[in-house]
Design a protein that fits this description.
The chain has 343 residues and is α/β, with parallel strands linked by helices. It has nine helices and 13 strands. The chain has helices at residues 12-15, 116-129, 146-156, 170-177, 196-204, 253-259, 261-267, 284-290, 296-342; strands at 25-32, 37-41, 44-48, 64-67, 73-76, 82-86, 94-99, 103-109, 132-138, 162-164, 185-189, 228-231, 237-240. Residues 138-139, 141-142, 165-168, 190, 192-198, 210-212, 224 line the site of guanosine-5'-diphosphate (GDP). Guanosine-5'-diphosphate binds next to helix 5.
Length: 343
Protein backbone atom coordinates (compact mmCIF):
# COMPACT_ATOMS: atom_id res chain seq x y z
CA UNK A 1 0.00 0.00 0.00
CA UNK A 2 1.30 3.43 -0.96
CA UNK A 3 1.55 5.90 1.94
CA UNK A 4 1.75 9.61 1.15
CA UNK A 5 3.48 12.29 3.21
CA UNK A 6 0.02 13.54 4.17
CA UNK A 7 -0.94 10.04 5.39
CA UNK A 8 2.18 10.18 7.57
CA UNK A 9 1.02 13.43 9.18
CA UNK A 10 3.12 15.84 7.12
CA UNK A 11 0.92 18.92 7.56
CA UNK A 12 1.54 22.41 6.12
CA UNK A 13 3.20 23.26 9.47
CA UNK A 14 6.05 20.88 8.54
CA UNK A 15 5.97 21.42 4.77
CA UNK A 16 6.48 25.15 5.39
CA UNK A 17 9.79 24.43 7.10
CA UNK A 18 11.40 22.75 4.08
CA UNK A 19 13.59 25.23 2.20
CA UNK A 20 12.69 25.77 -1.45
CA UNK A 21 14.69 23.65 -3.90
CA UNK A 22 15.98 21.54 -1.03
CA UNK A 23 17.82 18.31 -1.92
CA UNK A 24 16.77 16.88 1.42
CA UNK A 25 13.79 14.56 1.87
CA UNK A 26 11.36 14.38 4.79
CA UNK A 27 11.16 11.26 6.94
CA UNK A 28 9.13 10.46 10.05
CA UNK A 29 11.02 8.80 12.90
CA UNK A 30 9.42 5.51 13.94
CA UNK A 31 12.05 4.19 16.38
CA UNK A 32 15.05 5.65 18.16
CA UNK A 33 18.01 3.32 18.73
CA UNK A 34 21.32 4.09 20.36
CA UNK A 35 23.23 4.40 17.09
CA UNK A 36 20.58 4.88 14.41
CA UNK A 37 16.97 5.81 13.76
CA UNK A 38 14.22 3.95 11.95
CA UNK A 39 12.02 6.11 9.78
CA UNK A 40 9.18 6.04 7.27
CA UNK A 41 8.66 7.98 4.08
CA UNK A 42 6.47 7.43 1.01
CA UNK A 43 9.32 5.19 -0.25
CA UNK A 44 8.90 2.84 2.73
CA UNK A 45 10.99 2.13 5.82
CA UNK A 46 14.61 3.40 6.08
CA UNK A 47 17.44 3.49 8.55
CA UNK A 48 18.89 6.96 9.17
CA UNK A 49 22.03 8.10 10.91
CA UNK A 50 22.81 11.36 12.64
CA UNK A 51 25.54 13.90 12.12
CA UNK A 52 27.29 15.74 14.95
CA UNK A 53 26.33 17.73 16.94
CA UNK A 54 23.02 15.84 16.70
CA UNK A 55 22.82 12.61 18.69
CA UNK A 56 20.13 9.95 18.59
CA UNK A 57 18.94 11.05 22.07
CA UNK A 58 18.02 14.43 20.53
CA UNK A 59 15.25 12.68 18.58
CA UNK A 60 11.84 11.45 19.60
CA UNK A 61 9.58 8.90 17.97
CA UNK A 62 7.21 10.94 15.80
CA UNK A 63 9.79 13.56 14.84
CA UNK A 64 9.96 14.91 11.29
CA UNK A 65 13.51 15.18 9.90
CA UNK A 66 15.19 16.06 6.61
CA UNK A 67 17.84 13.64 5.42
CA UNK A 68 20.31 13.68 2.52
CA UNK A 69 20.94 11.03 -0.14
CA UNK A 70 23.28 9.20 2.27
CA UNK A 71 20.40 8.75 4.72
CA UNK A 72 22.06 11.16 7.10
CA UNK A 73 19.82 13.55 9.02
CA UNK A 74 20.61 17.22 8.51
CA UNK A 75 17.67 18.89 10.19
CA UNK A 76 14.97 18.14 12.78
CA UNK A 77 11.83 20.08 11.92
CA UNK A 78 10.25 22.22 14.59
CA UNK A 79 7.81 20.12 16.59
CA UNK A 80 4.10 20.74 16.80
CA UNK A 81 4.05 19.04 20.20
CA UNK A 82 6.60 17.34 22.42
CA UNK A 83 6.05 14.97 25.35
CA UNK A 84 9.02 14.98 27.68
CA UNK A 85 9.93 14.08 31.23
CA UNK A 86 12.87 14.15 33.53
CA UNK A 87 14.98 11.10 32.82
CA UNK A 88 15.13 8.36 35.44
CA UNK A 89 18.20 8.16 37.63
CA UNK A 90 20.13 10.82 39.47
CA UNK A 91 21.37 12.69 36.40
CA UNK A 92 19.36 15.80 35.69
CA UNK A 93 18.44 15.38 32.06
CA UNK A 94 15.40 15.52 29.84
CA UNK A 95 14.05 12.42 28.15
CA UNK A 96 11.96 12.85 25.04
CA UNK A 97 8.92 10.58 25.03
CA UNK A 98 7.21 11.35 21.71
CA UNK A 99 6.85 14.20 19.24
CA UNK A 100 4.10 15.60 17.05
CA UNK A 101 1.17 13.83 18.69
CA UNK A 102 -2.29 15.39 18.47
CA UNK A 103 -3.74 13.09 21.12
CA UNK A 104 -2.53 11.59 24.38
CA UNK A 105 -4.41 8.51 25.53
CA UNK A 106 -4.08 8.45 29.32
CA UNK A 107 -4.68 4.82 30.15
CA UNK A 108 -5.73 3.40 33.49
CA UNK A 109 -7.83 0.41 34.49
CA UNK A 110 -11.14 0.02 36.30
CA UNK A 111 -9.38 -1.46 39.30
CA UNK A 112 -7.02 -0.28 42.06
CA UNK A 113 -4.60 1.02 39.38
CA UNK A 114 -6.95 4.01 39.12
CA UNK A 115 -5.23 6.94 40.77
CA UNK A 116 -6.41 10.53 40.52
CA UNK A 117 -2.99 12.04 41.23
CA UNK A 118 -1.39 9.98 38.46
CA UNK A 119 -4.06 10.99 35.94
CA UNK A 120 -3.57 14.66 36.88
CA UNK A 121 0.15 14.24 36.32
CA UNK A 122 -0.45 12.80 32.83
CA UNK A 123 -2.93 15.59 32.08
CA UNK A 124 -0.26 18.17 32.97
CA UNK A 125 2.10 16.33 30.60
CA UNK A 126 -0.48 16.52 27.79
CA UNK A 127 -1.30 20.20 28.28
CA UNK A 128 2.37 21.14 28.55
CA UNK A 129 3.16 19.23 25.36
CA UNK A 130 0.21 20.62 23.41
CA UNK A 131 -1.67 17.32 23.01
CA UNK A 132 -5.40 16.74 23.44
CA UNK A 133 -5.87 14.34 26.37
CA UNK A 134 -8.36 11.46 26.35
CA UNK A 135 -8.72 9.22 29.42
CA UNK A 136 -9.12 5.55 28.51
CA UNK A 137 -10.27 3.28 31.34
CA UNK A 138 -9.61 -0.34 30.38
CA UNK A 139 -10.82 -3.63 31.86
CA UNK A 140 -14.36 -2.29 32.14
CA UNK A 141 -15.44 -5.86 31.34
CA UNK A 142 -13.78 -7.09 34.54
CA UNK A 143 -15.40 -4.64 36.93
CA UNK A 144 -18.92 -3.94 38.15
CA UNK A 145 -17.77 -0.48 39.14
CA UNK A 146 -16.77 0.86 35.72
CA UNK A 147 -19.40 3.67 35.82
CA UNK A 148 -18.04 4.76 39.22
CA UNK A 149 -14.48 4.92 37.86
CA UNK A 150 -15.73 6.84 34.83
CA UNK A 151 -17.47 9.35 37.08
CA UNK A 152 -14.32 9.85 39.16
CA UNK A 153 -12.25 10.33 36.00
CA UNK A 154 -14.79 12.82 34.65
CA UNK A 155 -14.50 14.89 37.82
CA UNK A 156 -10.76 15.37 37.39
CA UNK A 157 -11.12 17.69 34.41
CA UNK A 158 -14.52 18.32 32.83
CA UNK A 159 -12.95 19.15 29.44
CA UNK A 160 -11.45 15.69 29.01
CA UNK A 161 -13.38 12.83 27.38
CA UNK A 162 -13.46 9.58 29.34
CA UNK A 163 -13.83 6.25 27.52
CA UNK A 164 -14.51 3.04 29.46
CA UNK A 165 -13.48 0.08 27.34
CA UNK A 166 -12.63 -3.54 27.04
CA UNK A 167 -9.34 -3.33 25.14
CA UNK A 168 -10.12 -6.68 23.50
CA UNK A 169 -13.50 -5.59 22.08
CA UNK A 170 -13.72 -4.41 18.45
CA UNK A 171 -16.47 -1.82 19.02
CA UNK A 172 -14.60 -0.32 21.97
CA UNK A 173 -11.41 -0.16 19.88
CA UNK A 174 -13.31 1.71 17.17
CA UNK A 175 -14.39 4.24 19.79
CA UNK A 176 -10.76 4.77 20.87
CA UNK A 177 -9.63 5.02 17.23
CA UNK A 178 -12.20 7.74 16.55
CA UNK A 179 -10.05 10.11 18.64
CA UNK A 180 -7.09 9.72 16.28
CA UNK A 181 -8.10 9.81 12.63
CA UNK A 182 -6.21 9.33 9.39
CA UNK A 183 -2.84 11.11 9.37
CA UNK A 184 -3.11 11.97 13.07
CA UNK A 185 -0.88 10.63 15.83
CA UNK A 186 -1.57 9.55 19.40
CA UNK A 187 0.68 8.40 22.23
CA UNK A 188 -0.37 6.00 24.98
CA UNK A 189 0.76 6.45 28.57
CA UNK A 190 -0.12 4.57 31.73
CA UNK A 191 1.23 2.07 34.23
CA UNK A 192 2.49 -1.32 33.20
CA UNK A 193 -0.29 -3.87 32.81
CA UNK A 194 -3.17 -1.46 32.11
CA UNK A 195 -3.51 -2.61 28.49
CA UNK A 196 -1.44 -0.21 26.36
CA UNK A 197 0.01 -2.93 24.17
CA UNK A 198 -3.37 -4.69 23.96
CA UNK A 199 -4.92 -1.44 22.72
CA UNK A 200 -2.06 -0.84 20.29
CA UNK A 201 -2.32 -4.33 18.86
CA UNK A 202 -6.09 -4.07 18.56
CA UNK A 203 -5.86 -0.69 16.85
CA UNK A 204 -3.09 -1.78 14.49
CA UNK A 205 -4.25 -5.33 13.88
CA UNK A 206 -0.85 -6.76 14.63
CA UNK A 207 0.60 -8.79 17.48
CA UNK A 208 3.32 -7.54 19.75
CA UNK A 209 3.89 -9.29 23.05
CA UNK A 210 1.46 -8.36 25.76
CA UNK A 211 1.81 -9.10 29.45
CA UNK A 212 -0.76 -11.87 29.28
CA UNK A 213 1.10 -14.00 26.77
CA UNK A 214 4.04 -14.53 29.06
CA UNK A 215 2.26 -14.35 32.38
CA UNK A 216 4.16 -17.34 33.76
CA UNK A 217 7.50 -16.39 32.29
CA UNK A 218 9.93 -16.61 35.20
CA UNK A 219 11.74 -13.56 33.89
CA UNK A 220 8.81 -11.29 34.56
CA UNK A 221 5.76 -10.13 32.83
CA UNK A 222 6.86 -6.87 31.31
CA UNK A 223 7.77 -7.43 27.71
CA UNK A 224 7.51 -4.39 25.45
CA UNK A 225 10.87 -2.69 25.49
CA UNK A 226 11.01 0.06 22.92
CA UNK A 227 8.75 2.83 21.73
CA UNK A 228 7.59 2.65 18.15
CA UNK A 229 5.31 4.57 15.83
CA UNK A 230 2.79 2.17 14.36
CA UNK A 231 0.01 2.60 11.85
CA UNK A 232 -3.53 2.00 13.03
CA UNK A 233 -6.08 0.30 10.81
CA UNK A 234 -8.00 3.57 10.42
CA UNK A 235 -4.90 5.35 9.08
CA UNK A 236 -3.98 7.05 12.37
CA UNK A 237 -0.62 6.51 14.08
CA UNK A 238 0.05 5.32 17.60
CA UNK A 239 3.05 5.32 19.92
CA UNK A 240 3.11 2.88 22.85
CA UNK A 241 5.38 4.03 25.69
CA UNK A 242 6.56 0.93 27.52
CA UNK A 243 8.72 0.90 30.61
CA UNK A 244 7.83 4.37 31.92
CA UNK A 245 7.64 3.50 35.57
CA UNK A 246 7.58 7.01 36.97
CA UNK A 247 6.63 10.19 35.23
CA UNK A 248 8.69 13.00 36.65
CA UNK A 249 7.53 16.31 35.28
CA UNK A 250 9.98 19.06 34.38
CA UNK A 251 9.35 22.49 32.91
CA UNK A 252 5.64 21.70 33.06
CA UNK A 253 4.41 24.68 35.11
CA UNK A 254 1.94 25.81 32.47
CA UNK A 255 0.65 22.26 32.03
CA UNK A 256 0.05 21.94 35.77
CA UNK A 257 -1.72 25.31 35.83
CA UNK A 258 -3.92 24.14 32.94
CA UNK A 259 -5.05 21.04 34.87
CA UNK A 260 -5.69 23.06 38.02
CA UNK A 261 -6.78 26.25 36.29
CA UNK A 262 -9.17 27.21 39.09
CA UNK A 263 -6.36 27.05 41.67
CA UNK A 264 -3.90 28.81 39.34
CA UNK A 265 -6.42 31.67 38.96
CA UNK A 266 -6.82 31.87 42.73
CA UNK A 267 -3.06 31.81 43.28
CA UNK A 268 -2.70 34.82 41.00
CA UNK A 269 -4.79 36.85 43.48
CA UNK A 270 -2.73 36.07 46.61
CA UNK A 271 -1.49 39.15 48.46
CA UNK A 272 2.17 38.25 47.86
CA UNK A 273 3.30 37.43 44.36
CA UNK A 274 5.76 34.83 45.71
CA UNK A 275 3.17 33.26 48.01
CA UNK A 276 4.06 29.64 48.86
CA UNK A 277 0.43 28.92 49.87
CA UNK A 278 1.59 27.50 53.18
CA UNK A 279 0.84 30.06 55.90
CA UNK A 280 1.10 33.48 54.29
CA UNK A 281 -1.53 36.08 55.16
CA UNK A 282 -3.81 36.94 52.27
CA UNK A 283 -3.29 33.57 50.55
CA UNK A 284 -6.31 33.14 48.26
CA UNK A 285 -5.71 29.39 47.88
CA UNK A 286 -5.72 28.66 51.61
CA UNK A 287 -8.66 31.05 51.92
CA UNK A 288 -10.65 28.97 49.44
CA UNK A 289 -9.81 25.77 51.35
CA UNK A 290 -10.91 27.37 54.62
CA UNK A 291 -14.14 28.60 53.03
CA UNK A 292 -14.86 25.06 51.83
CA UNK A 293 -14.66 26.10 48.15
CA UNK A 294 -11.58 24.01 47.40
CA UNK A 295 -10.97 20.40 48.49
CA UNK A 296 -7.82 20.27 50.65
CA UNK A 297 -6.57 17.03 49.03
CA UNK A 298 -6.82 18.57 45.55
CA UNK A 299 -4.94 21.65 46.76
CA UNK A 300 -2.26 19.31 48.22
CA UNK A 301 -1.87 17.41 44.93
CA UNK A 302 -1.51 20.69 43.04
CA UNK A 303 1.10 22.01 45.51
CA UNK A 304 3.04 18.73 45.33
CA UNK A 305 3.22 18.81 41.52
CA UNK A 306 4.24 22.48 41.52
CA UNK A 307 7.03 21.87 44.06
CA UNK A 308 8.30 18.86 42.11
CA UNK A 309 8.22 20.74 38.83
CA UNK A 310 10.14 23.71 40.24
CA UNK A 311 12.75 21.43 41.81
CA UNK A 312 13.24 19.33 38.64
CA UNK A 313 13.30 22.36 36.34
CA UNK A 314 15.89 24.08 38.53
CA UNK A 315 18.27 21.13 38.59
CA UNK A 316 17.78 20.73 34.85
CA UNK A 317 18.66 24.38 34.24
CA UNK A 318 21.69 24.07 36.53
CA UNK A 319 22.96 20.98 34.76
CA UNK A 320 22.48 22.69 31.39
CA UNK A 321 24.47 25.69 32.64
CA UNK A 322 27.19 23.35 33.90
CA UNK A 323 27.21 21.55 30.55
CA UNK A 324 27.61 24.85 28.73
CA UNK A 325 30.42 25.99 31.05
CA UNK A 326 32.14 22.64 30.54
CA UNK A 327 31.75 22.92 26.77
CA UNK A 328 33.31 26.40 26.83
CA UNK A 329 36.19 25.13 28.94
CA UNK A 330 36.85 22.25 26.54
CA UNK A 331 36.71 24.60 23.55
CA UNK A 332 39.07 27.05 25.25
CA UNK A 333 41.50 24.26 26.12
CA UNK A 334 41.37 22.91 22.57
CA UNK A 335 42.04 26.35 21.15
CA UNK A 336 44.94 26.78 23.53
CA UNK A 337 46.68 23.52 22.53
CA UNK A 338 45.98 24.23 18.86
CA UNK A 339 47.67 27.59 19.26
CA UNK A 340 50.65 26.17 21.09
CA UNK A 341 51.08 23.45 18.50
CA UNK A 342 51.02 26.01 15.74
CA UNK A 343 53.78 27.93 17.42
N1 LIG B 1 -10.34 -8.42 30.14
C1 LIG B 1 -9.51 -7.46 29.78
N2 LIG B 1 -8.16 -7.70 29.79
C2 LIG B 1 -7.36 -6.70 29.42
C3 LIG B 1 -7.84 -5.42 29.02
N3 LIG B 1 -6.80 -4.65 28.73
C4 LIG B 1 -5.69 -5.38 28.91
N4 LIG B 1 -6.03 -6.63 29.33
C5 LIG B 1 -5.08 -7.70 29.70
O1 LIG B 1 -4.17 -7.17 30.66
C6 LIG B 1 -2.87 -7.75 30.48
C7 LIG B 1 -1.82 -6.64 30.34
O2 LIG B 1 -2.03 -5.92 29.14
P1 LIG B 1 -0.87 -5.20 28.32
O3 LIG B 1 -1.47 -4.71 27.06
O4 LIG B 1 0.34 -6.05 28.19
O5 LIG B 1 -0.51 -3.96 29.28
P2 LIG B 1 0.62 -2.83 29.10
O6 LIG B 1 1.69 -3.18 30.08
O7 LIG B 1 -0.05 -1.55 29.48
O8 LIG B 1 1.08 -2.85 27.70
C8 LIG B 1 -2.99 -8.65 29.27
O9 LIG B 1 -3.19 -9.95 29.75
C9 LIG B 1 -4.23 -8.16 28.55
O10 LIG B 1 -4.86 -9.17 27.80
C10 LIG B 1 -9.28 -5.21 29.02
O11 LIG B 1 -9.79 -4.13 28.72
N5 LIG B 1 -10.04 -6.27 29.40
MG1 LIG C 1 3.07 -3.05 27.02
Amino acid sequence: MQITLKDLGFTPFFAGQVPENSDLSPFRITEVHRDRLSALSPDGPSVLTTKLPLQTSDFAVGDWVLADENAQINVVLERQSLLHRRAAGTQASRQLIAANCETLFITSSCNPDFNTARIERYLALAYEAGCFPVIVLTKADQSDEAPGFARRAGQIDARVPVLTVNALDADDLALVASWCGRGQTAALVGSSGVGKTTLTNGLCGRDDDTGGIREDDAHGRHVTTSRALRRMQNGGWIIDTPGMRALRLEEAGDGIDAVFDDIARLAATCRFSDCAHESEPGCAVLGAVEAGDLAPDRMERWAKLKREDIRNSQTLAESRARGKAFGKMVKAAAKDTHWRRKR
